[in-house]
Amino acid sequence: MPLTGVKNIVLVLSGKGGVGKSSVTLQLALALTLQGKSVGILDIDLTGPSIPRLVGLEDAKITQAPGGWLPVPVHAASATTDPASEEESSHKPRGSLRCMSLGFLLRDRGDAVIWRGPKKTAMIRQFLADVSWGETDYLLVDTPPGTSDEHIALAEQLLTLSTTDAEAAASSDLPRLAGAVLVTTPQAIATSDVRKEVNFCVKTRIPTLGVIENMSGYACPCCGEVSNLFSSGGGRVMAQELGIKFLGVVPVDVKFGELVEGKSVDGSDSDSDNEGEDGKEPQQQNQAPLEPDERPLVERYKDCWSYGRFEEFAQTLIVDIEGGGN
To answer: Is 17 one of the annotated binding-site residues?
Structure first.
C-alpha cells in the first residue's frame, strides 16, 4: 500500500520562487526530528530540486528494494541524551530524517529536466506510490512555487491515498493529510501570490496549518539582533486578513546559510583551493586550520540562531496536528 507507515503529511507551499521554501522545509524537518519525530522530506520540485544540495548529499543514489525505492538517509534516530546539557531538547531522543528527490536520480546535478505536464504528473505519482518510507511520523512535501500541474497531481493523488480527517486516520491505515504550511517573504508581491495558494488549498480541501514569514529582517550572526533591511510584517497582515494562523517570522540567518553551503564559521569555503602569495592557503598563513566538524547536520543546526524559531514552529505543529504535544 502506498505511504504505508506514514502518519502525517504536511505540504510546504509558496506562491512564488525565491522565498526560501526549501530551506524552511529542511529546518522544519530538522526541528521535528529534534522533538523526537521520524521525518521524511519528499522533494517534488522536479525542475529545481534543491533538497539534495541543502542536506549535503548530492552524490547519494537511490536504492531499489522489493518494497520500492528507499529514501536517502540524512541521519539516523538516536536515543542518546546529553546529561551535561541544560537544554530541554538535549534530553529528548532524536528522530530520523530521510529524503527523496529527483535530484538523486539525475546522472549529473547540472542536468536540466525538460518535461511536459504528463511526465511530471507520472513522476509525482510514482514518488507517492513507489517509495518505501517505513515508520514516519511526518512526511514534509517540498513543492514547486505556484499552482501548476505538479500541485494538481499532488492534491489529487494525496486525497486518494490519505484522509484529512483525524478520526478516520486513527481508525485506519491511511495517513493523515494534516495540511499545508505557506511560506512568504514580507513584500507585497510575495504575499499577494500566497493568497493564491490559500485559494488553492480551499478548492482542493487541504487544511491550512499556518503562514511563515521568511527573510523577515537580518539576524546578526554574533548577537542575534534583528535589523529590518526591507519591509516586515506582510505575512502577519495577510494571515490576519485571510483568517489563517500566523506561525511567526524567520530573519535571514547567516549561520544557516554557511551550514548548507558547506562553509566554515569564518565564511571561507571548506573545499577551497585558493592559495596565498607564499603558496599556502590564507587560513594557514595566520592560524592553525580549523578542525572539520564531523557532527551530523542536525547537531550542527542547533548552533544556528534560527533553530529556536523552528523549534517553536515544530512544537506548534505537533500540538495542532496531534492534539496533545509530544
So the answer is: yes
Is 22 labelled as part of a ligand binding site? yes
pTM of the model: 0.87
Domains, the chain, with CATH or none: 6-271+291-322 (3.40.50.300)
Q: Residue 280 annotated as binding?
A: no
CB neighbour burial string for 107-124, b if at least 16 within 10 angstroms, e if fewer: eeeeeebeeeeeebbebb
Which is more confident, 145 or 269?
Answer: 145
Is 220 marked as a binding-site residue?
A: yes
20 is in an annotated binding site: yes
Give tens-digit pLDDT for 217-255. 887 777 767 777 766 788 999 999 999 999 999 988 888
223 is in an annotated binding site: yes
Q: Residue 173 CB: number of other CB atoms within 10 A? A: 9
C-alpha cell read off for 301: 543546526
Closest by CA position to 11, among listed 126, 195, 179, 164: 179
